[in-house]
Every structure is written in structure tokens, then in C-alpha cells.
Protein 1
Amino acid sequence: MADTGKKKTDGIYIGKFKLSFNAPVILCFVLISLGALLLSYISFGKIRDWLFMSYHAPKFSIMTIVRFFTHVLGHAGWDHFIGNMAYLLLLGPMLEEKYGSKKVLAVILVTAFVTAIINYLLFPNIAICGASGVVFAMILMTSFTSFKEGEIPLTFILVAIIYLGKEIFDGIFMQDDISNLSHILGGIVGGVFGYVLNIKKSK
């Protein structure tokens, strides 16, 4: 057998195929979210409420700040979890390959903080959890993948109308257990990141 000079140490091999850790931030996010969901079920929701849900606590504490970021890892149930993870696994790896792991992590952290702090300040009686805001951020970011300076991608306009328009409509006319505002804020964060990152590349 000929030696190709390549060492089989950079992945897990199954026969001649290699399983690659192609999107570390997204894969870690999904695995931690899964762990958070399992812990939630085991503790009958107590761990989710303590660590993976953002709300207006009676006293502003270090845990309140921690929850500003960790609430995106918590989910109300399997349907909520699977719906968000399916989008993240579809969109996240492409964005992580294009922009790098650090920038994708920054998008997740900024989205988590913005949605939590706005909810904390404006809606003290509402608790939020879940990666829906992050999903919307990535949807809007994806629409900027073919951005060129001086142009507005038609895909961005259509995505904004379809996804954000629906959330605005639902927020005005419908009652929903999932915060429409988190979706809208996430979309805005993703749109800003997509624009800024791509305009730098186009120069």
C-alpha cells in the first residue's frame, strides 16, 4: 500500500472516510444545547430556569448577567430544540467556513445579549429561552453571502420581508409563546454583521 504522506490524525476515520469537526462553534453549541435540554428534563425544568432562561430577577446578580448569554442554550422542549438546531446545522457551518469560528461566536454572543437585555428592560414579566434569535441572525447573515459593495442583495430584501415581516405581523396580530421580538432583534443583529463583514471583504 502506497504511503501518501498524510497522517490520519486530523479526524475520525471510518474506513477511507473521515468525520471532520468542520464547524466547532456550531457543533459545540448544538451539543451544549442538547445537554441543557436533558438537564432540564432531569431536573423538571429547575436547571433551565436557573441557568438557561433569561428573566427579570428580583435582584440583579451575577447569574442574571450569565443568563443574558446562556438563555440561547435552553429550550422549552424537543420540538423547540429540534426546530432551532435543524436551522443552525444547515446554516451555521457555511457561515463558520466563510467568516471563521470567532466571528460566528461573536454573532451568537451579541444576539444573546441584545435579545436578553431588551427583554429584561422592556418586558419584566416575560422569560425567554431558546436559539430562535440566533437562527434569525444566521438567516439574515446568509442572505449577504453574495454581497458586493454598492449593491443590496435581492435575497436580503426577500428574506427580510418574508421572515422579519412575518414576525412583525405575528407580534402585532397574534399571541405566540415564542418571543417575536427576539426573532426580529436576532435578524437585525445578523443583518448588521452580514453587512459589516462583507463590506470589509469587498474593499
Protein 2
Amino acid sequence: MTPASDTALDTLHTTATEIFTGAIKACNIAAAFDRRLHFEGNTLHRLLPDGGGPATIDLSAYKRIFVISLGKAAGPMLDTLLDRMKRRKGLSGICCWNQVPHSRNWRIRYFEGGHPLPNEDTFAAARATLALLRKARKDTLIFFLISGGGSAMFDLPLDPKITLEETQEFHQLLLASGAPINEINTLRKHFSAVKGGRLAMAAPDAAKVSLLLPDVPLRTLDALSSGPTSPDHSTIADVRELIAKYDLSAKLPASIRAFFERDDMPESPGNKGWRPSFFPKLARPEIAPARRVAAAVNMSEEDEAFRDSVFEILLSSHDLVESAKAMAEKAGYFAAVDNSCDDWDYADAARYLLNLFHSLRTTHKRLCLISVGEVTVTLNRKPGAGGRNQQFAMACALELENHPGERLTVLSAGSDGIDGNTQAAGAIADPTTVTRAHAFGFHLKESLAAFNACPMFTALGDAVVTGPTGHNLRDLRLLIAERD
């Protein structure tokens, strides 16, 4: 590499980072809230109801208002709602976030839930929420503010004999299984007292408004934080098929294995005789319309608790992609989008995107290939310091070594600012990564096998570090090329 080409790669690193951070910044929660909802006095106006429930909600008709905010965007979502909603009488709530908020509202109880594994506040927040929801009546309106990450930071086993340590082991086993998020969360829904619609069932008579920031595919929105307020159409039979599929039975803690093997294991709320998508496929993904449970033939009594629920999607991964695309085009790149490898194994996703990338760059001098979604990693040993984004970037680095002297860069990072068990959001790779890593004493194939990418990328200065973003709109991958 010549100094000039080193400089060119440095510029590409900077460009990729700017597109990533700029796309997250453009997905502003407060602005998204104002595009969907507007408070005027005691009236909540839904600006894009799309037939999904009432266009207005009269807050004065309710004696009490509860706010339950959970997930990696719990703090910003809660602050935005409280700022817009001027009413304070009868207001109380719970906030379960993975950060300590700088300021606290005295009407809200705050908990610092664990992620990627549950902690003591995970259980405490769930217990406090269930206790509050049991006080709800017909004169109660509940706002559920739900973002990704809630599956870990907000949980409580249905079986009270299952301990926190056993729950942590269960979550770790699921994360290491290589299963896609919707299958992982099918197991979590049936395990938990606060998932799979059970929060809604805890307050069956109350009116409910769920505001969502999904970190899951829009076709499986009921997997968001394991669907605490939406009916679950997966079954116990599905759970047992997944346990067999991923050979989990012998690995589960004894108490959890016994729970899943119980003849009287309770079903999650939701009529299992019909399985239409709770959130129909979005016809216009750039405008994710509100969805409401439609009346259905043979709706069970349990489903009645969901009938008048209102759901609003404030932001989604589509917004993240569109923001990244706009920034890339503004910088003079041809921007292509391909999300086909969502939920693929990281190595398969790397091969697919790199093949597409090399094909497209033959006809575009300045190219930015954008992909959103999450890849999976199957752990067969105790991992080092890393995450799925850094694992993906390391796999790309090994292939990019075959293109010496070319101006190519791959960035993969999580929009929440946290990748796996590290403080990095992800990493950047280029054709010099392998050579530079060897100079620091790192061998990529060994690091890849040990799931230990972070030390290497940190030493190279190629870890993407943003700190927690207060967002969680899935992972973003950028593959950028320039040629003369």
C-alpha cells in the first residue's frame, strides 16, 4: 500500500462512519413521534391512523394513565411522551432501560435492566409492572412504549421457582444457538410472565396504546421484545419443535427443562386456532401504518383483551436504510439496498453481500451497498470479546485480503451502539486489515474461531464506538467502493 492509498482507505473509513452515525441521528425519536401523534389539550390525535383504531383519544375520559416504557430506547421514548402529554393527574409508570437516566420524573419508577443477559432489575421491573397493571380498570389508559432489547432487560419466569441465574443461563443458551430472533422469542414468550401478550392480559379491561420502535423484521413485529402486548399465535408444540431443532433440551437448566416438559405447561395468550399475522404486511414500508387487532372469527375470550388495542410504529429499520441511502447519495455514491440476508448465518451473509458488492462495483465507480437486519452466530465455545457485527466484519476482512491496493471498505454496526458483550457498536474492515492485524500479533482465523474480534479491531483503531445511542433499529452494514 502506498501512502496515497492508505489515505484513500482512511477517507472511506471516515465516510462509512459518518453515514452510519448520520443515519442514526436522522432517525430522531421526537420527530418521529410528532409525525404520528399530536396532543392538543386532553386530546390525542393520531395523524396516520390508517383505519387502525380511533383517530382521536380523549384523555379526560380516563381517571388514570399508566406509562410502561421498556427496551433500549425506553428513556428517549418516555421523555418524549411526557414532554408532549401535558396531563399529569393520575399519571404513574415504569421505565426499564439499560442506562441510568440523567433526570427522573417522580411519577415514574426506574429500573436498569440487564442486556444481553437479565439482571436483578430485570425481574424487579417486571414484578413492579405487573403489580401496577393489576390496578388498571376500565377508566385506565395505558401507554406501552416498546423498543428492542426488552426481551433481556424485562423478564420474569412463569414458574416462580426458576432463579435469575437459571434465567441468565437460558438467555445465554438461546443467544448461542444460532436461531433467528423470531424463533428465540417464541421460546421466551412461553417461558415468561410478561411476554407473549401477558402484559396486556394483566390489564384486560384497560384501553391500551403501544408505541413501537422495532428491532425485528416488520413481518414478525410480535417478536419485538417478545411481544408483551400482542397476542401470540405460536404454540407449545412450536416451542418443543424448536427445542428439538436446536438440540437444547440437554443443555437447559434442569428447572427450565422440567417447565417446558410439563403436561400442563400454560399456553401464551392468543387464539391458537387462527393464525393471521397480527401485524399485516406493510404495503408501504416507508410509512409504517398503525395496526389494530381486527375482529376475527372464533376470537377467544383471551383475545378480547387485545381487541381495542392500538399500535403505532414510530420508526423502523426502513427509516434507517432510507437515511443511510440519502446520505450516501448526497456524498456522490450510487446507493444500492439489499436486505436479503436478514437472519442469515454471518459467514453466509458475508459471502452473499461481498459477491453482490463485487458485481455492482464493476459498473459503478462510487458504490455504497446498504444492508439492514441481523446476522446470526452459533457459539460452540465460550466466546471472547465480540459480537455479530464484528464477527461479520472479520469474515469480510479475510475475503478483502484478496483485493490488495483496492479502495474497499465494509462497516457493520448495531444502531443501539452495542455489539455483543463489548462496548463497540461494530467494526470496519478493508483489504489491509489482515496484514495490519498480523503486525499486531493477531491471526484472524484464530480470532474468528474464538469469537474474539473486539481486541483486534480495537488495536487497529477500526472498532466503531458510539456509546449507547438510545436507539435500536437493527444492524446496518455498509460496503463502500471507489475507483478511478
Protein 3
Amino acid sequence: MRSRLLQRLDAGIAAATQPLAADCLRCERAAYLARVGDFDQASRELAAVQQRHRSRPNAAVSAWLSLADALVSHYRDLGPQAHDKMKRAHAMSAAAGLQPLQALSAAWLAHLDYLRMDAPALARHAAEALKLAAEDHHGARARANLVVAQSYHEGGRLDRARPWYDRAHRHATAEGDDATLSAMMWNMASLRVAAARQAEACAVTGTDDSGRTASDHALLSAESTAQFDALFGVTSLGALQPILRAQVCTLLGQTDVALALYEEHLTAALGQGMATVEGSLRADRAWCRLRAGHHQGARDDAAAAETHLAAPGLPGDRAPGHSRLVQIHEALGDLDAARRHAQCAARAWQDHRADQALLVGALDREFAAAAPL
């Protein structure tokens, strides 16, 4: 099914009477193509626009080129270079007084800040986007609202996240932006998985996203996201969907299904930006192999997981891996290793809860007194 946003961009390019306006729309089109995974076409379109303006650069076209190039980099493999490219688009649009583009680039900077867990920066950039964007600038408002929603959700405050999710959905629907709707579904599913893993490891009860209920919801969310992406041809970061499902199946005890998914998709997922959580993913696969009776494979994966968990990273990425290694070493009879990972897990979960509190605090300072738009 063809996106309404893509149809509108194609119509705008065909109807444009000014070459500069047409090329800005071509950059916006390339940015959308990158978000749905058509990197080759996106790169070709950007190269053609860049070539036309090489001798006489235009501020608006240059800012659009930088923004679109940032999204190609980001959606190809979640590469860190996307942040610098987006900062350049933001700076150029601000210097040229291009307020709509400044709002959009600020919203995307907030998204990239979220992935870096830079709470003050993401709150500041999301607030800037919402301040600058007109009410009908649905692209900027959808992305900024989504960042605030997923940040509150990441912080364990789904109650505060819900109105922001609602507004993100409204703006993305008005824009006809299926890529953003897909991202919203993916984010909600992955954050439900994270909450379920935390609940399992920390024996959290009495919350909306705890235990088996959270895992069931996460599985439904993951399957719905995969079906939506198939309908609209979203292929960017395609290995992340089956890995998300593998994580849910592991939580639900469906380790045979999870193992098959890990075996088929883990390598691709690590190349698409999941290397930061490699330790936890390998720990999950070790558990699945152990449940299948593959003890040597489980030991090998557990050893690899421990190596990756020792590398610098966010505590929320490390904590589930250490918790899973406790189970594995207990099952293998290595109680000293189990106790060591239990201590690592306790420290990591404590640090993660502190990070959650910092994230919610940064958001509250920017947004608690304001209704999201």
C-alpha cells in the first residue's frame, strides 16, 4: 500500500514551478524513503540534488540535504554519524531563518538524543520543536510528541506517556506518515519488552506493564508492528522485528521459537544497530540453547555475553543480560558465577532506575505544566 505522504510529495514535486521548491521536496521524499528502508533510491535522489546545487549552494536545499542524509545514516544501521549531520541541518536552518525546517530538525535531534539517553538535550530539543512548529506542521509535531511519549514510557511512566502517544498518532495520521506510525508501534512494543524484562528480573508486581501481562501485550504489539510494516513496505532495520519477537518468546518460555529467531536474525540485527545490547541478546540465546539441551552452545554464548556486558554502556542495556546469566549459571551449577552476576545485575538495575528518574525529571521540567500539542 502506497503512503499518503509519499503520494503528496510526488504530487508536490510534479506541480512545483520553482526548481528550488521541487528539490526541497525531493530531499523530503528521500528522507521518507530512508525511513522505510529504500536507501538506494534515497541516496540516488540526494546525489542528484546535491549535484545540481554544487556550484551555487542554497541554504534551504543544503539544510534539507543534511537532514535527509542524517536519516539515511540513521535508518541504515543506527550509525552515530547521524547526530552530527542532524545538528548541521538544525544549525543551517536556524541561521537561515527556516523555522519549519528548524522545528523538524529539532524534533529529529530529540529522537537521536533519546537513543543516546541525553535526557536534558532530548527534552530541550523536543520543546524547541513544539514551540517552533505550526499546528499543521504534522511531521515535526508527530516526531516531537513521539519522543516525549517514548521517553516517559522509558522512564516507567506510561500514564504520562499516553497523551503524548495520542497526539503523536493524531499528527502522524494527519500527515499520512506510515513510517512514523510504524515507529510508534515498534517503540511501544520494545518498551513493553523492556518493562517485562525488568518486572521478571526485579519481581515487580502491581503495575500495568508487569509480568505475564506485559509479555503478552509485547507479543501482540510486535506481531502487529510486523504486519503493519509488511502492509506498507517498511523494511528499514528489518532484523529488529524478529529479534524483538525472540525476546518476547524468551520471556514467555517459548524458547524453541526464540532460538530459531535468534539463530536466523541475530547477526543481521547486530549490524543494524543492536550491538549495544549484544550482551543481553547473547545471554537470552544462551538460555534458549540451554533449554534446548545444547549445553556447550549455551556456555559459549554465556561467555560471549559476559564479555560484551563488561563493555561500557547503559545500565538498562546491561541489567537484563546479567539477570539472565544468573539463571544460566544456576542451571549449570556454577553458583559462584551466579552470585557474581546477581551482584552485577542488582547494581545495573539500581543504576537503571536512577536513569529513569533523571529522564522523567528532565521531561517534567520542560513539560509537566504544559499540555502536549
Protein 4
Amino acid sequence: MRCFKNISLLGGVLLALVLALPVYAEGIEIKTAELESMEEALHLKADIDIVLGQTLEDALNKGVPLNFVAEFELKRPRWYWLDETVSAAQQHIRLSYHALTRQYQLSYNNQQRSYPFLDEARRELGRLHDWPVAKRNQLKEKQGYVAGLRFRLDVSQLPKPLQINALASKDWNLDSTWHYWNYSS
């Protein structure tokens, strides 16, 4: 009987140690998202936390570029019918690694930036700033809208052999789901 008490005590200690370890779950989480009204357009500002799993990091370091898509939509709710889509926009961002220069590169909006470390490139990948998503003349004064943002890995841009792998494995499924918030003009 005494032996079982020691085993249950040991199990409790191990469980406490496991729970105390930091957990780094892979995935995408939208931390903040807001619209800023500029002269002629609404600009999106968002901070997104992106954690790549070991499978994606290995593929990236072996030369496989990862293509991400930021999707935005602005809708006007209607009680009598489906919500009206006022604006929809997409931004494509490519993260790649160049072994010759040992640099990670982000490519978006005809710009390229290089980073020596993956963590720096990942943090910059998760920052969407000054992205024009809607024109001011599309909005009605004193009207309420619902804005939505989604950030995901675009598996259709992977090389064909990896696309089959991506469909069968959860390691390649990186998606933030839709993040919604209210906006008033």
C-alpha cells in the first residue's frame, strides 16, 4: 500500500512540473486589429502572433517559401437581409530563407526586407500597418460596420508534392480564423 502512495505522489510532482513548463502552441492569433481613418481611405493596423511549428520551420530552412494571406472584409449589418459587403481586400506576404546569404526575406507590396533571424522575420510578418482596405467614399456617415480580419498560410502556393502533404497533415494548417470588431464612421 505504501508503494502506491509513493507512485501517486511522484505522479503528482511530474504533473505539476509538466504544467509549469511554458507551452508554445503553433498557430496564428490576432492580438489587436483596428481601423484608422486617413484622408481618403481606411487603413488597417493589426498585430498578429505567428508561431510556426517544427515542420514549417524545417521546410522554410530547406528552401520552401511560405506564402501567407491576410484577408479583410468590412460589412454593413442589415436586419432585413444578408449583411452588405462594403469592402474586401487581400494582401499576400511571402516568407523565404536564402541559404547563401543566411537571411530570411519577407516580400509584400513589391518590397523585400531581409532579417538575420527567423524570430525577427516572424514578428514583422505579424505586423500589418498602413494597409489601405477601404475608401472613405464607400462609407456612410454615422453608420455602424463590422470589420473582419483573417490571417492564414496559403497551402495552394506550396510546391505540388507538399500540397498533398499539407492536406493530410495538421502541421501545415495555419489559420487564425476570423477576428471581428465593430467600427463606426
